[in-house]
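Write out this protein's structure.
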Amino acid sequence: MADLENSVPATSQTLYRIGSISKPITATAAMVLWERGRLDLDSPVQTYCSQFPRKQWPITTRELLGHLGGIRYYKVPETPYYESESDPEVGNVHHFDNGIEGGLKFFANDPLVAQPGTHFNYSTQGYTLAGCVIEGASGKKYTDAIRENVLVPAGMLQTRPDDRFAIIPLRTRFYSKDKSGAVVNADFLDSSYKVPGGGWLSSAPDMARFEVAILNNQLVKSSTRDTMWNAQIPSDGLGRMAYGLGWQLGATDGVKDIGHGGSQQGASAMILIAPDARAGVVVLINSDAAGASALATQLLEIVLGLDPRDRTEVTVDPKSYDNYIGGYEATSVVMNISRADDHLFVQFPGQQKIQIFPENVRDYFFKTFDAQITFVTDANGRATELIMHEGGTDLYAKRIK
């Protein structure tokens, strides 16, 4: 339902928050400008965004698009981030007529979390800075540059910023669930300060048009698309998301896929593309209590004609678990692997331990949700990192203890 209180059903034209799927849209616009010689991906961002202060090290647009720019994320301990009540940026209620300028003020004077290029740190704030770069390179307002370089060429005529003051026909209401499981209205959010990284509205047909336009080279050349879909590797060798320039990278049952997820107040969204099969799926949900990534993976399996995979628990020597016990860090989050008797558990920050089950000595799966963990080991069988596979994307976590 698009509106539970007024019994308004959702249709194919309903507009949903797409959250971080805004990032590949922004990245694509930047790459269009790069193709046209208007933007140098490797010049300091101040070349195009003079209002952003210079830091200890230079930051490039390429680093911003790959989350290697050293820009911070939200200042929150909670997972998911949008449940935080400690950071006013998360549940922002102030509306900015100039969202780029307003968004920059939240973090422009903060120190970098790492030297650019050395460390992967997922950052919606970095995409606000990328939006400023797009304005400088294009000579237009960010939203106008996106419409001209992405939305109109792709035929995405419904897609627009999530402006809480505007009357937007077909915009859904936004929902969540309370602790009892009852559906409630989602917490308030004014996303005007972060449109480039998490502030667009779109419909399922428009997001499908975006996928088609990317596959058909309507927006950028195939060589440019390949550049966007090439993994960016931080030099510190620590944990990272498998990420290109604005796109998450992974696989669905061994089939390479590209996409991006989005989650924020009242929204869960996922787009997935299997480039070799020239196929894609879109999932947009008007609730932050739903899981779009798992559904997207299931739908892509159907589209690709893959048989649903039944994961079977096997018996392994519990002594092998000792090689995996420890902490693993990715995107500044530490996952802890522990053993209790003959069982192996993973614990995410602020959550209870969850048991994982062996498919073989290195590959494990969750029974409570659709995700898997692969341990990467050295010659002695000791894990050096783990890879978490979920929703068609991969997360690499380096062992730190």
